C-alpha cells in the first residue's frame, strides 16, 4: 500500500448554496504526480485551493503531511501555482523570485542559487532582469512555476501549469515534475489536457464536484476497456463510448 501525504475526507464546499465539491474523499499518494482531471467548472481549482489551505470547507477535513488544514506550519512546505498569475508587474523576474524566496525564509547564497536554478528550469535566464509587465502570458506562467518551486516544497500544487506554454518547454516541465516526484515531492496538477493526464501516476476524475474515478491511467483504461483517457472519462461520466 502506498503511503498517502494528503487525505481528503468527505469534503463539501458550497458557494451561494450551490454545492461545488460534493463529499470528496481521496488519499493522495506521497512522491507521485496526481492529476485532477475534469471539464471547466468541475471544481478543480476549488479543490486545489482547499488543499492549499486557502479556503474553508462547509463539511469534511483535509490533512496535509498529517496536519489538519488550514495550518500555518504546513503552508511553507507547500508550493502553490495559481491559475491566474500573482506577480508584481513592476518588478523584474529576479526581484519577484527574490521576494517570494525571502518570504519562504531563504537567505544569502542558497537563495541566490535557488533563484538561478529555477529560472533556468523554466528557460527564463535571458529575461531574468526584465520587468514582468513586459513578459508574455506564457513567460508569466513559467515565472509563476519557478516561484512555486523556489523553496523546494514537499507538496507542489499546480493549477493548469502549462497553459500558454509551447510544446517543447511543456515536455521539459513534465520531465522536471517526474524528477521532482522521484526525489520525493508529492505533486497535484489540474489539467483538462488529455495527453498530460496520461503522464500522471494517478488520476482523479472530477465531474460536477464529485470524484467519478481515481486510479492509475492504465487501470482506468483497463477497467473501462477504452483506448483513451477521454473515452474513459466519458465512460465514468455515464456516457458509454
Ligand atoms: N468564489 C466563488 N464564488 C462563487 N462561485 C464560485 C467561486 N469560485 C468558484 N465558483 C464556482 O464553482 C464552480 C467550480 O469552479 P472551479 O474554478 O473550481 O472549476 P474548475 O474545474 O477549476 O474550472 P476551470 O477548468 O474552468 O478552471 C464554478 O461553477 C464556479 O463558478
From TrEMBL:
SMART domains: AAA. Coiled coil: none annotated. Keywords: ATP-binding, Nucleotide-binding. Pfam families: ABC_tran (PF00005). InterPro entries: AAA+_ATPase, ABC_transporter-like_ATP-bd, ABC_transporter-like_CS, P-loop_NTPase. Residues 6-233 form the ABC transporter domain. Gene3D superfamilies: P-loop containing nucleotide triphosphate hydrolases. The keyword Kinase does not apply. GO terms for molecular function: ATP binding; ATP hydrolysis activity. This is ABC transporter ATP-binding protein. It comes from Chengkuizengella marina. The lineage of its organism: Bacteria, Bacillati, Bacillota, Bacilli, Bacillales.
